[in-house]
Design a protein that fits this description.
The structure is a single chain. It is built from 8 helices and 28 strands. A hairpin with a 6-residue loop joins strand 18 and strand 19. It is an alpha+beta fold and 528 residues long. The protein is rod-shaped and about 155 Å long. Helix 5 packs antiparallel against helix 6 and helix 5 packs parallel to helix 7. 18% of the residues lie in helices and 26% in strands.
Length: 528
């Protein structure tokens, strides 16, 4: 029976031969198609058979190499692809496509591609071994498309190139490991690190004031250091315009006092203010100064010396009856007394530096009083800073002191300079008493000088006008002779030195006002 239209039906005997004939026609057609397929495969040159006989392995080796491992974005990388076959059990590989892909901007192997071959045959005996690269070196076929400019959108990152060998993506190939053969995929990826830099030069930002380094493939830009110079009054910094390290201007040290020369001391970076009577007429004649020799010999009214008077005691009394010098209270002008101004200025020095300093400090203190000090030891007087620092140092047994920005100032030299009417130079230690004058020009140069150890190179040293050493005592200051009758021949006269004998006597006593010897004095009339 035969089924027709969804139902089975029986066939007649006459119908059977006809059905058999139809089957024979179909069989003949199928045979013809199979023959045609075999003929086409044969015509293409591929023998669908196991080659070599008995082989059982896919030993196809795909080599994939690059000429750089770490690059900057935008660098060119040359790739090499090599294919070889052979070894124990190796089967032939035929009709193989090989396609190379450059890295794309996103790092994937989807950039420009080049077809290296579409008919690659690689027998197991190695006779088909081959290679391609961008240069043709090493016996390889030169293919320009294997030189890739690798540019990534995001850095750092990884750029991947690919070679497709076999498979079904964009290449084909057949492994003859059986009568029917096998498909295979020998494709490979090759990664490349794309970094910000590989050398310091690649980090150059064209700025002088940065130091550019490549550290672990990352650019670092640090400020260019400008080492400090020996001038502490300036600050060194990098100037991009000048392409150099430059020094700043020194700070303003203006103290708004017309009578001082203000400047920054390079050695310390601190401001100094040096009194200069030449700056203005108002700076001249306001101070009075005398040496220890004057004060030590004008401390008694000697009846044998007409008009002599105790000027020293009058000045001490004007300060309230006592003064403090080097930690010692001085209130009188007696001989052999711990509180005597005469002992302070006439005692035997014998090489003891603190005694010499006490002599100068006592005279300076008296000078400050007659110069009109403003309430303190020497407040308002040009010697104020030096006096305060040196008086404190003396009380500690020292003869040097830091005065403002000036370190280790010689107190004896600085105060002696003031007592003699000079201007002390902290840098050189010189005591200036005038300015240099150009011969026949009448021009006073701003060059300080003195007649002994700092003479003028040209011309003479002209003393400061109204030098305090030659200044008269102010009229408002009352001395004993000022209280005499106007008819008295000594009225308002300074008079001669009246205590020369007392000064000589003080020089001979064992009494001295330094800490080691003060107890040798016979009395202490200043004790409370």
């Amino acid at each position: 029976m035969m089924k027709r239209g969804g139902a089975f039906h029986e066939t007649s005997g006459a119908e059977v031969p006809a059905a058999r004939e139809r089957l024979r026609v179909v069989a003949r057609c199928l045979g013809l198609v199979l023959a045609a397929v075999i003929a086409l495969i044969a015509a293409d040159g591929v023998a669908i058979a196991q080659q070599p006989a008995g082989c059982n392995s896919n030993n196809l080796f795909v080599g994939f190499a690059k000429d750089k491992t770490v690059i900057q974005s935008g660098d060119t990388v040359n790739y090499t692809v090599s294919i070889s076959n052979g070894g124990a059990g190796a089967c032939d590989v035929v009709d193989t496509d090989v396609v190379f892909h450059c890295p794309a901007a996103d790092g994937t192997p989807t950039g420009s591609n080049v077809v290296l071959t579409t008919t690659g045959n690689y027998p197991a005996d190695g006779t088909g071994n081959t290679c391609w690269n961008a240069t043709g070196l090493g016996g390889c076929t030169m293919v320009a498309g294997m030189s890739c400019v690798v540019t990534l959108t995001t850095v750092p990152g990884t750029a991947t190139a690919r070679v497709n060998v076999g498979g079904a993506l964009d290449s084909q190939g057949l492994l003859l490991d059986s009568p029917s053969g096998s498909n295979f995929d020998a494709s490979k990826d090759l990664n490349l690190d794309v970094v910000e830099c590989t050398t310091n030069e690649q980090c150059d930002d064209d700025l002088f004031c940065t130091d550019d380094l490549c550290v672990s493939n990352v650019c670092q830009h640090s400020a260019h250091p400008c080492p400090a110079d020996s001038d502490l009054c300036t600050t060194e910094s990098c100037d991009e315009t000048a392409n150099a390290c430059v020094s700043s201007d020194p700070p303003s040290c203006d103290d708004a006092d017309i009578c001082t020369d203000d400047s920054c001391v390079p050695a310390s970076g601190d401001c100094q203010h040096i009194f200069n009577p030449e700056n203005d007429e108002s700076c001249q004649g306001d101070e009075v100064c005398r040496t220890p020799g004057f004060w030590g010999t004008h401390a008694d009214a000697d009846e044998d010396k007409a008009c002599s008077q105790n000027i020293t005691q009058a000045v001490i009394d004007a300060a309230g009856g006592s003064i403090e010098v080097c930690g010692v209270t001085i209130c009188n002008t007696l001989v052999d007394d711990q509180g005597s101004a005469v002992e302070a200025m006439c005692m035997k020095v014998q090489g003891v530096q603190t005694r010499q300093l006490i002599r100068q400090l006592t005279a300076a203190r008296l000078n400050c009083i007659v110069s009109g000090e403003a309430g303190g030891a020497c407040d308002g007087i040009s010697i104020n800073d030096v006096y305060d620092a040196c008086n404190a140092a003396c009380a500690l047994g020292n003869v040097t002191a830091d005065v403002g920005s000036n370190e280790d100032v010689s107190c004896i030299s600085a105060i002696d300079c003031f007592n003699n009417g000079g201007q002390y130079d902290f840098e050189t230690g010189a005591c200036f008493t005038g300015t240099c004058q150009i011969p026949d020009a009448g021009i006073i140069q701003p060059i300080f000088c003195n007649a002994t150890d700092a003479p003028c190179e040209v011309g003479e040293c002209v003393p400061f006008p109204n030098n305090c050493h030659s200044a008269e005592f102010p009229d408002e200051f009352d001395f004993p002779n000022d209280g005499l009758s106007s008819s008295d021949p000594c009225f308002e006269k300074q008079g001669p030195a009246g205590s020369s004998d007392e000064c000589k006597a003080a020089h001979k006593t064992p009494c001295a006002l330094d800490a080691d010897t003060i107890d040798e004095c016979d009395t202490n009339e200043c004790a409370p």
